[in-house]
Specification:
78% of the residues lie in helices and 0% in strands. It has 148 residues and is mainly α.
């Protein structure tokens, strides 16, 4: 993926999905790790900043040539997951989401679960886009063959 409007669109999708995942996962995490926790209005700002930080980790998929090979994609996906966990753990610690080893491990698990959820949503969107493009190409090919 090149750094262009498509990348901006993808990062925007990742931000929205990450924010939604944060809104879903955080109450579940808090029920397990600290059931007495309350949410203030600051939480929504922290969740936005957190989502922005983790969505910017997707810049590792930028490629000057525009397309990644399968091997490059796999390596960058592994690096993205490690970077995402590092950024999320640091941000989570700074905003007080965890403060012990057990809390950090639980938080890391939930970040990984949210990452899987975001990737599934992105895959679903990309798959839908690919089907639409393929159907348009098929229509165009049919029209071209009818004209000849």
């Amino acid at each position: 993926m090149k750094f262009n409007s498509g990348l901006f669109r993808t990062i925007t999708y990742i931000f929205v999905y990450s924010y939604a995942a944060t809104m879903v996962v955080t109450p579940i995490y808090c029920l397990i790790s600290s059931p007495d926790a309350t949410f203030t209005y600051h939480y929504f700002l922290y969740a936005m900043l957190f989502s922005l930080a983790v969505s910017l980790c997707s810049l590792v998929y930028c490629c000057p040539s525009g397309e990644l090979t399968q091997k490059q994609y796999l390596v960058r996906t592994i690096f993205h997951t490690i970077l995402l966990e590092a950024v999320a753990l640091a941000a989570g610690y700074l905003i007080g989401m965890w403060d012990s080893l057990r809390g950090g491990l639980l938080f890391a698990f939930f970040v990984l679960a949210a990452d899987v959820m975001v990737n599934l949503l992105l895959f679903s969107r990309d798959s839908r886009d690919a089907k639409e493009i393929n159907s348009r190409l098929k229509e165009r090919n049919n029209r071209t063959s009818e004209d000849n």
